[in-house]
Amino acid sequence: MWSRYLLVFGGGVVLLAGMFFLNITQGEAGIGIQTLIDAFVAPQDVADHHVIRTLRLPRATMGLLAGAALAAAGTLLQTITRNPLSSTETLGINSGAFLAVNAAAVFFPAAFSSNSLIVAFIGGLAAIALVYAMAGGLTASPVRLTLAGMAVTLAIGAVSGTLQLMYEENTGRLLAWGSGSLEQTNWSGVRFAVPWIFPSALIAVALSRSLDLFELGDEMAQSLGQRVPLVRMTSLLLAVLLAAATVSVVGGIGFIGLIAPHLMRLIGIRRHLPLLISSMIWGAIVLLGADTLARMVADGSDELSAGAVTAIIGGPWMIWLAIRARKGGGHLQRSSDSSTLASRLSGRTPYPVLLMVLAVLFVVIWFLGISLGSLRLHISDILAAMAGGGDELTRNIIFNMRLPRMLVAAVAGAALAASGLLLQGIVKNPLADPSIVGVSAGAGVGALLLLIVLPHIHISWLPAAAFAGAFASAAIVYAVSRRSGMNPAILVLVGVAVSAMGSGIIQMLVIQAKIRASAALSWLAGSTYARTWEELWQLMIWPAVLLPVAWWLCRKLDLLALSDEVPTGLGVNVIRTRIWAGIIGVAIAAAAVATVGTVGFVGLIAPHAARILIGHNHRRLLPATLLIGALLLMTADLVGRLLFSPKEIPSGLVVALLGAPYFIALMRKSVARK
């Protein structure tokens, strides 16, 4: 026991000191150990000493404080939720605090400058309250809490992205900062954070005995004199306050609160007094190490965010935790609400009529998309241009600007919807979506990497790069999930972790490539802006080839929805069917991402809406899902163009603003059913 404590605390303090000083030596201009010692022992009025005292020492100190604060917050959250996957990142606290900071910077800049902590605290508290509400309250399973946190994070991210695009002048610096940056220009950030982080950490340590009792269960703790609601609320407020203080200074840095406490528990530390203290030490080590690594690999003056590095490190950690938690994870079952409603609607409305209504809506949105814009076109002008007549300006607007854009939106929306339908059929989980199970992030990494490494390469190679990234992500998800028997809940959690890793890599690539904030946000959110005929043809090839194969697989997917034993008994190879359906779903999603960026939620909403209207027959679902997906992205493109004209909101953000509440409602129905 004592040797273990000596290793954790003694070794941790020594390693922390070494990492602290190593971090100070890193930067655009390297600083030697002797210069560092001189700056502390005999400071002089020279440039290197000023850099150390005013830039690098505050940065390293802030890294120590932020790492300790996030680790303490993660420990508290994991205890009070009894959820091994809880942290300020996975429960949406960081994103809620960041949205509040964004909104205050835009709408209340004067008040924000002196009340940033209060703003971030309110945002983080509101976010975790929403997560608990949609997950089913205090009894929610780890899987459900994590998925609820992911949904809230995606929804908040869409709102934050919209604010950043609409008010770029107010929020121009928030893209890199929002991904988590320890960069400091003076001691003001440290002076701001210390009065909040230090007392909060002390109170958390003082609660150690109460937290030990809390882990025995509510009834046992109450019988021993524990005031469970008070301990839970105090711990929650402390965790949010620690996160808010951190976000206010360094932005959203994730996974520190996931890694450090579990690392200590793996070593064998269980009691909360040593657990909290050791977690804070090692949380600081992890964050300083991530920042040091980011600065070591940075090219010249390019500044990589520590948050992106921690996301890449934390993704595999979350995968491992998800596998460990599978026994108590709580499987996500198919929603019987949609099934019941589907049986009612499909019995009342004939299938051909439903398809006809969707087709008419498609034509209406298509005409509106062509006619509405900065220059409105009358329907007679559109028909004349389609017939080969009309003036040159009208033909140019229609054929070179609006028509290819709307068709790209339609095909990409249909492709993402079909991908979602196939992925949901594979995992038997209505929450599966290309963006949720890691496919979109992987495709985004592949496409963006190609654009940065080979900027002059022909556009025809972009889908190949997206395919490579998407299949790499899918392979990781499949390989890990297969060890748990393709448990749907584990598959989705692994997908969330892979998505986090992909997002971290994308953030690093965007910052390294020095892409303008607005351009980066537009692509990351998913945009159909200025799409051309060439991009349309590149996109159309893949759905045209693969969707007939998907149609052929639909009968087998119907059998997979029952159980693995039924299709096996009827001679269907379950594993082969899942692999082929997965390959098709990944491929068409990758083609869409290569063309329009990482659009989310289309693959979630469209299949679920189709099931409500039609039922669970996949051959009937596929055409309806394609039409609904096309309608969603076309409508999002139209709304994004018109809502704040002449500024445009990326269509992916519009879909996310609609899709996240839909996701929340879907989970709430599942909770209410249980």
From TrEMBL:
Coiled-coil annotated spans: none
Chief localization: membrane
CC per GO annotation: plasma membrane
CDD domains in UniProt: TM_ABC_iron-siderophores_like
GO molecular function: transmembrane transporter activity
Chain ranges passing through the membrane: 60-79, 91-111, 117-135, 147-167, 236-260, 272-294, 306-323, 351-370, 403-423, 435-454, 461-480, 486-511, 579-609, 621-643, 649-667
Annotated Gene3D superfamilies: ABC transporter involved in vitamin B12 uptake, BtuC
Keyword list, A-Z: Cell membrane, Membrane, Transmembrane, Transmembrane helix, Transport
InterPro entries reported in the protein's UniProt record: ABC_BtuC-like, ABC_transptr_permease_BtuC
Location relative to the cell: Cell membrane
Topology of this chain in the membrane: Multi-pass membrane protein
Family affiliation: Belongs to the binding-protein-dependent transport system permease family. FecCD subfamily.
Name this polypeptide is given: Fe3+-siderophore ABC transporter permease
